[in-house]
Amino acid sequence: VARPTAVNLRWAVRRVAAAAARATDAAELRRLALAEAMAILEEDRAACAAMAEAGRAELADRHRLLTHCNTGRLATAGLGTALGVVYAKAAASEPVQVLASETRPLLQGARLTAWELVNAGIPVTVVADTAAGAALAGGLVDAVLVGCDRVAANGDTANKIGTYSLAVLARVNRVPFYVVGPLSSFDPEAAGGADIEVEQRPAAEVSTLGGQTVAPEGAGVWNPAFDVTPAALVTAFITDAGVLRPPFEQSIAAALASR
Amino acid sequence: VARPTAVNLRWAVRRVAAAAARATDAAELRRLALAEAMAILEEDRAACAAMAEAGRAELADRHRLLTHCNTGRLATAGLGTALGVVYAKAAASEPVQVLASETRPLLQGARLTAWELVNAGIPVTVVADTAAGAALAGGLVDAVLVGCDRVAANGDTANKIGTYSLAVLARVNRVPFYVVGPLSSFDPEAAGGADIEVEQRPAAEVSTLGGQTVAPEGAGVWNPAFDVTPAALVTAFITDAGVLRPPFEQSIAAALASR
Question: FRET label pair with A139: which of A9, A243, B96, B197, CA 20 to 30 Å apart?
Answer without folding.
Answer: A243
